[in-house]
Amino acid sequence: MTFSLGALAVPGIGHAAAPALQAWPLATAQRTGIHDVAPAPDGGVWFSAQRSGHLGWFDPATGRVELIALGAGSSPHGVIQGPDRAAWLTDGGQQAIARVSWPDRRVRLYKLPEGTPYANLNTCAFGADGNLWFTGQAGVIGKVDTKTGEVALREAPRGRGPYGICATPRGDVWYCSLAGSFIARIDLASGDSHIVEPPTKDQGARRVWSDSLGRIWVSEWNSSNVSMHDPRARAAVDRWRTWKLPGANPRTYAVYVDERDMVWLSDFAANAVVRFDPRREAFESWRHPREAANVRQILGRRGEVWLPESGTEVATHLASVV
Fold first, then answer.
1. Torsion sign over Cα 197, 199, 203, 209
2. What confidence tens digit (pLDDT) does each residue in 255-305 have?
């Protein structure tokens, strides 16, 4: 199905022509609980089926959906494509990182060390060291050594809160803490976290993403801001920039930066997708045609932006060049 997104009537922000939004209601026998999405190497799109315990895959050309069972008690949160072209998922239900090889669809679990308290696994990213780094909202940072399969955990600074995580083009790994309201760079050799404080107090940093220059973009759930940290800036005054999303009471959840360094965000309160152009410092916002879309992590590939509607069991696609 194809819809036209309605532009939000917000004074003082730019409006492009409403982009075409293609929607794929997930035709499955059970509710999947779609959470995050990631482009698959075959042109399909993966999604984490948090409620049903699957890696989902659908074909945009036909709308066909396939569910790959991850194991008893599975409840995956994040999903990404690894450098090995496999799907990697953080599976909080199984206290494990799940790898699904592609296209043969073999599932391998990397379990957290036995006796580990519930970690509430969240999201993951590959660093320059070739290893998978991941967050646990209960207060852990972890690593899967992809050569040995060993899983190591460290307590996160300030305890509960680690949420979104990303890698820069040079392979540095950054994460944010929703409860701790900070971002941090992981020392890939030691596993230590180097905290960087955003300028807004108690902002609720929820997700992070890097642009092509290695600048870290942060979606701030509590403050309704999007902020940007430039680790290369010499002067302290140049290390942070912050912008408030348009509208009366926005709620910033996801952030994703496309290949043109355009910043995409989801606004839960306005039920909208938001695009921010850093060069013009201008926002454009479009409402979803379905109520309570609740878009989680946005991801994409060249010319495409993919939006998982966790509230409606719909996967949606928006061309990034609009």
1. negative
2. 999 999 999 999 999 999 999 999 999 999 988 888 999 999 999 999 889
CA distance 106 to 64: 20
Sheet holding 2-4, edge to edge: 2-4, 20-25, 314-319, 304-309, 299-301
Do the strands 282-287 and 314-319 form a parallel or antiparallel pair, or are they unpaired? unpaired
Residue 30 located in a structural domain? no
The span from the first CA to the last CA of the chain, in angstroms, equals 19
**The predicted structure's pLDDT at residue 7:** 28
Please give the residue range of the domain that contains residue 166.
2-8+70-319
Nearest residue to 133 (alpha-carbon basis) of 103, 104, 154: 154
Give the count of beta carbons closer than 10 Å to the beta carbon of residue 76: 30
Integer Cα distance of 272 and 285 in angstroms: 6
Tabulate helix, strand, coil % of the chain (nearest 5): 0, 50, 50
User: Which tokens hold the place of 42?
Assistant: 């075959």
- Ranges of residues in the chain with a pLDDT under 50 are 1-17, 320-322
pLDDT of residue 1: 38
Whichever domain contains 139, its CATH number is 2.130.10.10
